[in-house]
């Protein structure tokens, strides 16, 4: 069978190679090549969706020896947990590329189109690679590979304080990654020094409880920084505010999910007992993130910073859903990762549009924009509603599944209390988003500079439209996605939690089955 | 029989579909269509919905009494594990009443809007939102499970948000819309948690499953109490009860047809509808029922007292709506589920008439809403005057107008129902209800006399005064139809004192019986005909006293007496005029507690000082010395160089690993 996964992962690199041969001042050609490459890659990635069977198995799996004497394998594959995040990546990349057409007309960046596009394409490869890797070292390579293009996107194409923001981003994530790398080697040695293969290590490690705890912490922090979870979040607002629009969209849309994805794929299966015993504590931090992110978002003066803090709040829901370990909450968490990519991606693009026109993101600079930009207003409103989880938009399905699933969790300590606190995010979310929307879009159009703002042009509408469609499709027909996600989640819970954590502890198992019986009724 | 069922199943999904289609057409291309076509599309959608509703309800009547509940699943919405929610609709006795009210009154208000919104530059946007509202409201009413209801619940909230802030160029309107949405979200928070409790207990949100779980004892009293309290929090938000009522008076910033449709006749009654829909669950929780009755009675009283002194004609009606919603909750809280719904229906008609009448007055007065400027409109706007007079009589509770019938039932049941938790509470409930009725009479007659009687208009602008004339036919048509129903609609549910035996005059209660009788039977109600007559007369006397009082004060000019009284009662007047300063209190709490705390403590202290300055910058300062050199290099480099670094880094890692 043709190795589609590898093909889709490496195809953007082909684009980068082509770009090498284009003169740097030929901006239009460069942009068009990048766009075409990313669109084609998206179309190819649909093959995965068509070929995907809604069961729990790893699909499109390839397992080849890579570096034999180190036990490093080229082991890749996708399941219900990763497939849609891969698709989200291939879906967002062309959108981001199209959105950058105008930024690169700016004299500062005139000759840098090639760099920008190449960085985006490399990033796409890195993200997909990390999502499909089933070998620790392979994963680590792609994981580090994500860091570098993002660093340059912020550091070269960013705003005034880009150096500080890029450095902060780099140090935060690199610090986390290094600990993870060390932990990987410890695991490798412990499992006999034979293989870095994830499944092999899971079945061959023998660790004491303390070792498990420490190693889990190493993985956990690396991923928690990426999410980011409170209190490791302060790099995010700076990175977002300084990053160019495209960087922000990829950062929020895809990179943050690498943290939550990492929990599911690596941290939990490697150390299920630790994950379960600390589920309640992690839940508390997730809930703090939800409320904290929302409250701080409420007092922001910069639109982009507001959306950045809202990401912390939204990702808190995802973490909560993952560590509640019920099939509803975890399915919801994975769904919410996709939702956040779409709605927050749309919000960052929308902020980028007014930033391009006005070169400011200060809320108080705007007001009454609906009057001059009616189409923009409609799309902004839909993205806002998706972000505050209005039913029949995608956001609602994710939040509802997470919260209802967490409420009934028997694994996470204090889960019902945590759910109640988390659900206040529903109120605060509406407050900060609608207040921002009101200040930017409604009211009298007083600022002279805003009076001649142009509404969306065809290009802008073209890249926003697919996001708007997805907001409704995922809100009205979630089953299409859920039924492909759920089998993997079920087997995840069965294999990692029920079997490996509770097998010997019959009391808890009994509780779980009782709960399941009850819910069946 | 099965034929009837099949017809219902086929037609039911169409009912919300029509306004949805109307909304999509007007939303996408309405801007480019001529106005006539825009409102034709919107009104046709409603007419189609209403006609279909009439057909399905008549088919429902044709079914035997015990099988008047028809459900249809359209598609499966969310399925994860054992939890599943379908997009499905149910037509039964309760939803059929709501269906007719929503599509009927909704249709009339669409017609009225043609006149009212004529000349507005966002004509198509208005009708798009109105159709959106009807669509959401129909989901709310028809949903077979709590989650579909919740879609509608939040959907009407969205429509309300958009319509309150319809004239968004004024910040105050936009703020009012936002306030409505956020306050409702506080209620929705309760609604959500309530649903989680049900999911935990029975794993399902279907109304049928909840009923079965209640009957089989899976849902215990404690679970029911907690869940219903939370659902009632949701109802408080949507139906503007204390302490979440604050958004409704502000919602009057929207165009008047919106106030009539959403903020009087339909959406705000959703909370009452939900309680009655879940009556079998609420009846298991006497504590919740007591809370509902108390909050309802207190809201009725409190809002009516504010309405006494307001000068904005719409503000009076807004507080009146809050007050009347209080009555509905008082009714359902004492177990008079049928009575609560009857008042919902009668209120929908007379309050819609009042709002639309007020809208007509406002158009006549060239958008002046202050009643102190009005007066003598009786001659200039005869149809508006007569219809408003009818509705005023109806709301104040004069026999045989509709308001009397429904309100009397609630007040009597408040007195006669035995409360197991606080036995003497029925006196309090009755007292609050009776006093609120008295105040209702006063503020409504005050409104009537200030607006339509008392000499000539007090407006100084003679240019405007000369142009005050009756509103166009599209508007008066709706007024006439609605006011007709404001008289007669109550006759479907006459009190048993007036009418014994079976027939059209108590068909309302017999219709709802299969749905609520089981629950109503669980509440002990005193039967004492003499007492019932006495109390009815007492309340009526109070209402007449208020009428004469208001007549004396406001019939001619605002009398000197009034001013003396206002002066003497200045502290109370100030308190009422400023609505007990509740908004100020809330504003203070939000500003001082939430915003200042978030800004000063969470953001500036924790994020900046603690995490960034102390922890991270320490690391960055250390790290940047070593990294600084490299970073400087990167800043000025070329892509080729970066790529080189990346590749080199990879080789470095490999080298490191092969050691």
Strand count, sense and closure of the main sheet of chain B?
A: 2 strands, antiparallel
Count up the domains of chain B. Answer: 4
| Content of β-strand of chain A | under 5%
Strand order of the largest sheet of chain A: 1-2
Global mean pLDDT of chain B: 86
Question: What Rg of chain B is obtained from the alpha carbons, in whole angstroms?
Answer: 29 Å
Instruction: Provide the spatial order of strands within the biggest beta sheet of chain B.
Output: 1-2
Q: Considering DSSP H and I runs of 4 or more, what fraction of the residues of chain B is helical?
A: over 70%
Derived from helix and strand composition plus strand pairing, the structural class of chain A reads mainly alpha
Shape of chain B: globular
As residue ranges, the low-confidence spans of chain B are none
Q: Element order, helices and strands of chain B?
A: HHHEEHHHHHHHHHHHHHHHHHHHHHHHHH
If you compute it from the alpha carbons, what radius of gyration of chain A comes out, rounded to the nearest whole angstrom? 22 Å
Q: Report on the biggest sheet of chain A.
A: 2 strands, antiparallel
Residue runs with pLDDT of under 50 for 5 or more positions of chain A: 506-521
Which chain pair shows the most residues in contact?
Answer: A-B, 83 and 74 residues
Oligomer state equals heterodimer
Distance between the termini of chain B: 84 Å
Helix-strand string of chain A: HHEEHHHHHHHHHHHHHHHHHHH
Average pLDDT reading of chain A = 88
Number of strands of chain A: 2
What can be said about this structure in brief?
Chain A has 521 residues and is mainly alpha-helical. Helices cover 74% and strands 3% of the residues of chain A. Residues 506-521 of chain A have low confidence and may be disordered.
Label this structure with key terms.
heterodimer; A: 521 residues; mainly alpha; 21 helices; disordered C terminus; B: mainly alpha; 4 domains; two-stranded antiparallel sheet; 28 helices; 2 strands
